[in-house]
Design a protein that fits this description.
This is Metal-dependent carboxypeptidase. By secondary structure, the protein is mostly helical. Helices cover 61% and strands 3% of the residues. It has two domains: 91 residues; 377 residues, Orthogonal Bundle (Neurolysin, domain 3). The protein has 20 helices and three strands. Helix 14 runs antiparallel to helix 15. It starts with 11 loop residues before the first helix and ends in a 5-residue tail after the last helix.
């Protein structure tokens, strides 16, 4: 563990910097609420005004950050004796400043307005199963983001530059190394599972499950897990997400009347995100110490709660009676059968957010490879559907028949979020390492989950991850929490043991 520098009286320049950064955070948080509203509450025809509102806030935030005064304050503080927390704040502000100062304000505005207009275009294209309705906007976003990357660093791989918007502390090469390890283990494991003669209870939750009752079910799940409703809310969105601050961390889900587990796990997933946000220190609101580290760490929290908690046998020992209270037709399902249904490996699932825990990562690899080709110029936007379908056939043995279940299923490209997808798999890998360390420190987590006691896990995650905000960079944060370097070993051991037992695999 590292030795912390005792707190020192902050110089005036530091207070001045904090005041400016807090103002920027408030502008960004206001934009976040408008973005939430656009997906959840806004009337269908509100886009023209909303795109201008978000564009203006993006420009204001950008201009505030690249102001000469902030550059001068950062230079002054560079030669000042700061404690560890103060130095971390200055480091993070400088990281953002040095990127943003290279990007013209008009480009920031154009990216924001194009993204706002892209959202309804994506929704329409998905609803009508017609990629051509989204393609022109996607093509524009690809070009804008390439310009953005070139402004930041014209001498580097533009995808690497874009990846740093979501994961600024792990190198792309480290991310690729981890993804390669995951892929090398999962591909043969999935093949072995598909050849297995084991019959899991995959039909345990077949039937029709009304949306209003599913809504009550997932609210009960949030209650069980400890979601503080006084600082959050649950709504429905086309693509589940969580957003907000430590004072207001909202979650969304979506419902399919034939798939109650889909709504349950997406809600638990977003709860994990919200728990991280809510665990940030109140007193650091508006500063880097009150903001999440990055998306890999954020995804580690959502994947930990979704997979290590929500898909565990212990959780189903606890939660199955609640499930059957809402859906009495499942009364004959045992906790073991529920566990098997929750962890089946699908042979024909096309949708990433509905994927099982293993094939999920091949969905990520496909998106990662397509993004790289789009940004490098090796793939034309018009060819995305065919390339997407070819890769699904190659990696998963299935071929989407529609754009809706293929390349239009994810919302991320409508935001211009190229470089985002790898953080999902990185987060899953990190989740396994963190969960193992938590279990080592606090004891029998399965037993606590079975009893509905999540306090120790909440406290461990808050103490070791949430409360630090951006104090540590990603690798150091993982080492502080677990005592070890960030590694894929725990994830690979976890899936090998879990799915080896479920499917009676020789490799387990």
């Amino acid at each position: 563990m590292s030795t912390e520098t005792p707190a020192t009286e902050a110089p005036d320049a530091y207070h001045d910097l904090l005041e400016k950064i807090q103002r920027i955070s408030n502008v960004q948080n206001a934009a976040g609420v408008l973005g939430w509203d656009q997906q959840v509450m806004m009337p269908d025809e509100g886009t023209p005004a909303r795109s201008k509102q978000l564009s203006a806030l993006s420009a204001i935030s950008h201009d505030l950050l690249v102001d000469d005064d902030i550059g001068d304050l950062l230079d002054e503080l560079e030669a000042t004796d700061l404690d560890d927390e103060q130095a971390a704040v200055v480091r993070e502000v400088r990281r953002g400043y040095e990127r943003e100062v290279r990007v013209p304000t008009d480009l920031v505005e154009e990216i924001s307005s194009t993204s706002s207009e892209a959202l309804p275009a994506w929704k329409e294209a998905k609803a009508e199963d017609d990629f051509s309705k989204f393609a022109p906007t996607l093509e524009k976003l690809v070009e804008l983001k390439k310009q953005y990357a070139e402004h930041i660093d014209p001498d580097r791989d533009p995808y690497e530059v874009l990846f740093e918007d979501f994961e600024p502390c792990l190198s792309l090469s480290q991310a690729e190394e981890i993804l390669d390890e995951v892929k090398a283990t999962l591909v043969p494991m999935i093949d072995e599972i598909r050849e297995s003669d084991v019959d899991l209870a995959v039909d345990a939750f077949e039937g029709t499950f009304p949306e209003d009752e599913q809504d009550e079910l997932v609210r009960d799940a949030l209650d069980v897990l400890g979601y503080p409703w006084e600082r959050g809310r649950l709504d429905v969105a086309p693509h589940p997400f969580s957003t907000g601050t430590m004072f207001d961390a909202r979650v969304t889900t979506r419902f399919d009347e034939s798939d109650p587990l889909g709504a349950l796990f997406s809600t638990v997933h977003e709860f994990g995100h919200a728990t991280y946000t809510l665990g940030l220190p109140d007193e650091q609101y508006g500063t880097p110490l009150g903001q999440s580290r990055d998306l890999s760490v954020h995804e580690s929290q959502s994947r930990l709660w979704e997979n290590h908690v929500g898909r565990s046998k212990a959780f189903w020992d606890l939660f199955l009676p609640t499930f059957t209270d809402h859906f009495p037709e499942t009364e004959g399902v045992s906790a073991q059968q529920a566990y098997e249904a929750a962890n089946q490996v699908y042979e024909d699932n096309f949708i990433r957010v509905e994927a099982d825990e293993l094939t999920y990562h091949l969905h990520i690899v496909i998106r990662f490879e397509i993004e790289r080709e789009l940004i490098s110029g090796d793939l034309d936007v018009a060819d995305v559907p065919e390339t997407w379908n070819d890769k699904y056939e190659e990696y998963l043995g299935i071929r989407p028949e529609t754009d809706t279940e293929g390349c239009l299923q994810d919302i991320h490209w409508s935001y211009g979020n190229f470089g985002y997808f790898p953080t999902y798999s990185l987060g899953s890998v990190m989740a396994a390492q963190l969960y193992a360390a938590a279990e080592e420190d606090v004891g029998d987590l399965d037993g606590q989950i079975r009893e509905g006691d999540f306090d120790a896990l909440h406290e461990w995650l808050t103490e070791n991850i949430h409360r630090h905000g951006q104090r540590y960079e990603t690798n150091e944060l993982v080492k502080q929490a677990t005592g070890e370097d960030f590694t894929a070993d725990y994830f690979l051991d976890y899936v090998t043991e879990k799915y080896g037992a479920l499917y009676d695999l020789d490799s387990a």
